[in-house]
Design goal:
single chain, alpha/beta, Rossmann fold, eight-stranded mixed β-sheet, six-stranded parallel β-sheet, 14 helices, 14 strands, globular
């Protein structure tokens, strides 16, 4: 299909490469997958996550427009901050919402728009201004707010929470199609409204399957790796403080809000077998991950609706997992036999589970079986084709 005959589609998101993290990767793969069928235009803030500062290449700019990998990208201004002050965080979200309103006034908006949620306030701004009988508004819901915020301890059951619930309900009721990353998310939306069409859209990564080899680490220790954001939701610092390190070593890749505190903990406890590698490019990270016995996927609290995309990514790499977060993610690990699970926030059970793992089990046959399961059940291309039938 030629570019002239392709339909226009806009994706509005708060996260996009060169920013790191699951949200950024998820939207990039969606945009990249749809560009063969649509003229894709992504609208996103000037890159700032997770540092809370505008990236060097974009400093001093009010906006930036480019074409990258066949995708038009409009990067617009926001007040960047990673402050713990709730008013500054609110102002940062409002600044992006105001920039979006200005963008809507001066740019042609296509008949199909995919809006990422959360952030809830940004999604509300988009749904409120773009809802139209002539336009299909598609809401891509990756987490349930405000309930996830309450479960994480970031929100209290007060007037602000009830206001966010009203925004959430407005978004769901005024969308034409909702993409949910888990069955729990879709069930929650159904409890609020029966209006929009619902589609289960898992966060399957679009990555190549790596060739697996029998590997030997040269140590009797179980080599465990964590790779990703070092944020409040992941609780990596608390996990490090509660692990029993007998017979294991822990390797950590990533950056985020807890990075400084985590490095301080490692510096004070030099006797612990923890190695911090910092932030690594994603393509390089995939090579690094193959060096380890298993990956750990923790959540500080069980978050209803959450299914970390790492599950599907690691499965494609043939990497066994230890899931420590509860909920639907735990069900995916168990049903597909992708590794081990420990009850969310139960560090005693986590240590018991690690101690029970027989390192000889983690062999080439196990990794190939996990990779085969990913190929059969977590195929990005198959899911994308199904999505295009409902867009």
């Amino acid at each position: 299909m030629s570019a002239k005959t392709k339909e226009d589609l806009m994706i509005i998101t708060s996260y996009f490469p060169p920013e790191i993290g699951a949200a950024s990767n998820r939207i990039f793969h969606l945009a990249d997958g749809l560009k063969n069928s649509y003229n894709v235009h992504v609208v996103t803030p000037l890159p700032n996550y997770p540092t809370g500062k505008i990236f060097k290449d974009y400093k001093g700019k009010f906006k930036a427009k480019s074409e990258e990998n066949g995708i038009i990208i409009s990067r617009i201004w926001l007040y960047a901050s990673k402050s713990k002050n709730k008013f500054l965080r609110l102002f940062a979200m409002l600044s992006y919402s105001f920039s979006l309103m200005w963008f809507f006034m001066w740019n042609r908006i296509p008949k199909k728009v995919i809006i990422q949620s959360p952030p809830l306030l940004v999604a509300f701004t988009c749904v409120f201004f773009l809802r139209s009988k002539k336009r299909k508004v598609i809401l891509n819901v990756s987490d349930l707010w405000p309930s996830a915020g309450y479960e994480l301890g970031a929100l209290k059951l007060n007037f602000s929470y009830r206001l966010l619930q009203k925004l959430e309900a407005f978004n769901y009721k005024n969308a034409d199609l909702i993409l949910g990353q888990s069955n729990e998310i879709l069930a929650h939306i159904k409890s609020i409204t029966k209006k929009p069409e619902l589609f289960l859209y898992r966060n399957f990564p679009d990555i190549e399957f790596k060739e697996l080899n029998e590997s030997s680490s040269g140590t009797n220790r179980l080599k465990i790796v964590y790779a990703g954001l070092l944020g409040v939701a992941q609780g990596i610092l608390k996990m490090c403080q509660n692990l029993n390190y007998e017979g294991i070593e822990l390797h950590i890749y990533g950056s985020g809000a807890e990075e400084e505190a985590l490095q301080s903990f490692i510096a004070i406890n030099k006797e612990l077998p923890i190695v911090f590698h910092g932030r690594v490019d994603r393509s390089e990270l995939h090579k690094e991950l193959l060096k380890y016995d298993l990956a750990i996927i923790p959540l500080l609290n069980r978050i209803y609706g959450s299914v970390p995309s790492k599950i599907f990514e690691y499965a494609k790499l043939g990497l066994p997992m230890l899931y420590f977060g509860g909920g639907e993610g735990e069900t995916v690990i168990t049903d597909h036999q992708l590794g081990w699970v420990a009850g969310a926030t139960n560090y005693e059970q986590l240590n018991t589970t690690i101690k029970s793992i027989d390192r000889s089990q983690i062999n080439l046959q196990m990794k190939e079986r996990i990779q085969k399961t990913a190929y059969e059940n977590f195929d990005f291309g198959v899911q994308l084709k199904s999505l295009q039938t409902v867009l």
